[in-house]
Amino acid sequence: MYRYDQYDHALVQERVAQFRDQVRRWKAGELSDDEFRPLRLQNGLYIQRHAPMFRVAVPYGMLSSAQLRRLAKIARDYDKGYAHFTTRHNLQYNWIPVERVPDALAELAEVEMHAIQTSGNCIRNVTTDQFAGVAADEILDPRPLCELLRQWSTFHPEFAFLPRKFKIAVNGALEDRALTWFHDIGLHIRKNEAGEVGFRVIVGGGLGRTPIRGQVVREFLHWQDILTYNEAILRVYNRYGRRDNAYKARIKILVQALGVEKFAEQVEAEWAHLKGGPATLTQAEYDRVAAFFNPPAYVQLPAIDEGFVQAQAELPAFARWVERNVRPHRVPGYASVTLSLKKPGTAPGDVTDQQMERVADLADRYSFGEVRVTHEQNLVLADVRQDELQALWEDAKAVSLATPNIGLITDMICCPGGDFCDLANAKSIPIANAIQAKFEDLDYLYDIGDIELNISGCMNSCGHHHVGHIGVLGVDKGNEEWYQITLGGRQGNNALLGKVIGPSFPADEVAGVVEKLIQVYLENRHEEELFIDTLDRLGVEPFKTRIYGDRLKGKNAA
Amino acid sequence: MTRIIKNRAVVEDSWSVLRLAEGETADTIALPQGPVLVPLSVWTTRKSALLAASSPAAPVGVWLAAGEGPEGLVDDLARLPVIAVDFPKFTDGRGYSAARLLRERYNFQGEIRAIGDVLPDQLFLMARCGIDAFALRADKDADKALALFDTFKTPYQAAVDQPQPLFRRRAA
Description:
Chain A has four domains: 6-110, Alpha-Beta Complex (Sulfite Reductase Hemoprotein, domain 2); 134-290, Sulfite Reductase Hemoprotein, domain 1, CATH 3.30.413.10; 306-398, Sulfite Reductase Hemoprotein, domain 2; 413-557, Sulfite Reductase Hemoprotein, domain 1 (2-Layer Sandwich), CATH 3.30.413. Chain A is built from 18 helices and 21 strands. Chain A has helices at 6-27, 33-41, 65-78, 101-110, 143-153, 226-240, 251-258, 260-274, 283-290, 306-314, 316-325, 353-366, 389-398, 429-438, 442-448, 507-524, 531-538, 541-557; strands at residues 45-47, 52-57, 62-64, 82-85, 90-93, 127-128, 168-171, 185-191, 197-203, 215-222, 326-328, 334-339, 350-352, 370-373, 379-385, 413-414, 453-456, 470-477, 480-487, 499-500, 505-506. In chain A, helix 3 (65-78) packs antiparallel against helix 12 (353-366), helix 7 (251-258) packs across helix 8 and helix 16 (507-524) crosses helix 18 (541-557). The radius of gyration of chain A is 23 Å and the shape is globular. Chain A starts with 5 loop residues before the first helix and ends with a helix. By secondary structure, chain B is an alpha/beta fold. Chain B has a single domain, classed as Rossmann fold, CATH 3.40.50. Helix content of chain B is 21%, strand content 20%. Chain B contains four helices and eight strands; from the N terminus they run ββββαββαβαβα. An eight-stranded mixed sheet of chain B has the order 2-1-8-7-6-5-4-3. In chain B, strand 7, helix 3 (123-128) and strand 8 (133-134) form a beta-alpha-beta unit. The N and C termini of chain B lie far apart (50 Å). The A-B interface holds A 5, 7, 10-11, 14-15, 18, 22, 31, 35, 38-39, 121, 148, 151-152, 154-162, 227, 235, 238-239, 243, 273, 277-279, 281-282, 285, 288 and B 69, 90-94, 96-97, 100, 105, 119, 121-122, 124-126, 128-129, 151-159, 163-168, 170.
């Protein structure tokens, strides 16, 4: 993975000094709360329900074992011994006092990490596919370009005070695993007829209060032009995006207001001035950065390891874990493993300091010392030998990280919700736990098969409820926590927004409602049909009828 | 006279800023004696009168409101010793784009002054965008603010202060 040189090191160290000075001036009354707020937000620091919430960037999801150990140390020394992985390759702490954040930042800087622009109205952490570099369907490893975007966006002088936050996602494979259709800018790496590498540029997607699928602004942009083109997009947005209403300030609203053709025209007109300028990427710089992402030292192995096959035959529990949590690798004899952070009864995405240290050990022992963070809030060891999978499984089980549920209903995306987040209208973790409890039986869980259930505690949609096959959204109804259900959302190449199916439910009914939805699927599915397929074939009516039928009848009777 | 930061030093400054009050309009407002920065609307409607009244001792400049770009000033740049960019709130970042366009696209060589809600923690970014004079908000200490210009010594991007991005200068 990328390693800092003297320039990168100097910048994160200067950032620590800058923030230490800002905290000092705030404490001394030289900076008012209002003046300090955007400064601390751009270091990922929110003042929250219990204590500040501190969000650390994991650029494009890559972590070394040394970095993970440092995150564990910070959880132990500064927090209460745990942390939370978010849906955008970030790690959040919940209990670090403001005064100690500069020291935590200094600890991060030592391991080439930071919290730069993890919040605020600026360009946020760039995200990508957790299987970058190892996926069989990859066109080009997106990570070097992500790193170049990270550097370009870090302390960008013109775009530090945008109308609203700005998120970029890059996907380098045939299948979209980075939710690119729902980002401010989504980039698809592709090749043109001449074999040159470039991007399809999608602008104006987003979830949140006004969920909108992004639109293509350019079908092919040569990779060397990505920084100048992004500057053109950002400049049009910075100048003309709405600033009068925070709910209307994302770039998606500007794109909708202008229409995508007109918006694209403005971007192209701006870009005409910037194209070919000094910010045009060079092959030399690409090569310098790409060298950090060269494949690790794989050994030659048989495509199928006999011992691995035999172990699956002998150990049903191992076979189950392999079926759900292990993914083919493009190098023969290797596999990618997802460590589940969705053990029923725990908060989705949460890890303890001990678990982080243990994962670091597993990465060192089994996967070249590297870990990836997924937007589904799990961890990935991308390069594991088949003949070591069983040993890894045993080790992961010992720290409760081998729950065999990847892609199943209990592997849900879930924001921290009202237990931790000030923005939330409702709690989300207890809802997740109640649903997990309904589906604890593994045979039942496996029979249901692949399904995506996403929970957000408010309209900000950190839990991506709009793109869950089943989405659960917490809403505030007369100071009570209620939950709205959406159906039919999905991520991937055919990403779609789910539709609200009807009136919302009180907290204690949500898990039962989800169970009824699953029953409709199980009763009506055709052979090999997944939940989403049955839903697409039948439409939402039978699902609605099952849930609201009694209630509607009751109304009619009254 | 007020104290402003200019070319990274605190100096005494005699420019005033004309702002239209409620009910005042560009075509009727009394034009003050220079040195004065007038709104773009006043410049556009009263240009000949302003130019006639201006002299080296009493110059006239223009200030751009946050929603205004430099496009309307392109033909006048050589006549304007100072163009100011107004920040109605320090969180309104439109002025950064206006300053960069003035320097990079229109090659403006005069002074670009930040006015309005100008705070020390934004000086580094503003300077990178080509702003070289800063009328800090009155309650802020200009002498203390000077240190913040050097917050980051070698940033990544190309900008007005360093037209070559770091990746073109990185020592191998």
